[in-house]
User: Fold CDP-diacylglycerol--glycerol-3-phosphate 3-phosphatidyltransferase from Klenkia brasiliensis.
Amino acid sequence: MTRAQGRTGSAAPAPSRDELGDAVWTVPNALSVLRLLGVPLFLWLLLGPQADGWAVAVLMVSGVTDWADGKLARALGQSSRLGAMLDPAADRLYIVATLVAFVIRDVVPLWFVAAIVARELVLAVVLLVLRRYGWPPLQVHYLGKAATFLFLYAFPLLLLAAGTGTLAAVVAPVAYALTIWGGALYLLSAVLYVVQAVGLVRQARAERVPA
Assistant:
């Protein structure tokens, strides 16, 4: 059985990305690049002038473009392999960059960020292993998307909770709840990615065994 044939079996979620087009200059890809370019601006606003209002505005624009690029890709028939890689990359950069900035500003504890960074390192190793066995990167799991959604709501609320006054006291429980749930789903999605990757590696090894 060839690798292409193997991808049409039980591992159907992984190959769909490999079957996408090679288009580069598309509207969805442009939106994803815009989101990536917003990461250093977002960090500077948080750590430089600490212009939290503008930082939240950048985060909101990122959330809108995250929703829009997927919708436009389907509506315009412009889904591509590049877009399938840029979209989760932008999500991860925003999450990790924001949490690192929050540690520097004492908004979240270091152990929480360490767990998220460890998750990304594990998935980087998983990606290298999959490439070694001829598999494309895994599709983004819905739990990962749900975690990103929760984080996008939690981050601006965490900034408000870090302040003083009645508003900070009111939003703090909600902000921490969203952050904890988002972190739990983010780590759980990594476990599911690893389980799926193990299955693909076993399938690849089985294909190499002579009949």
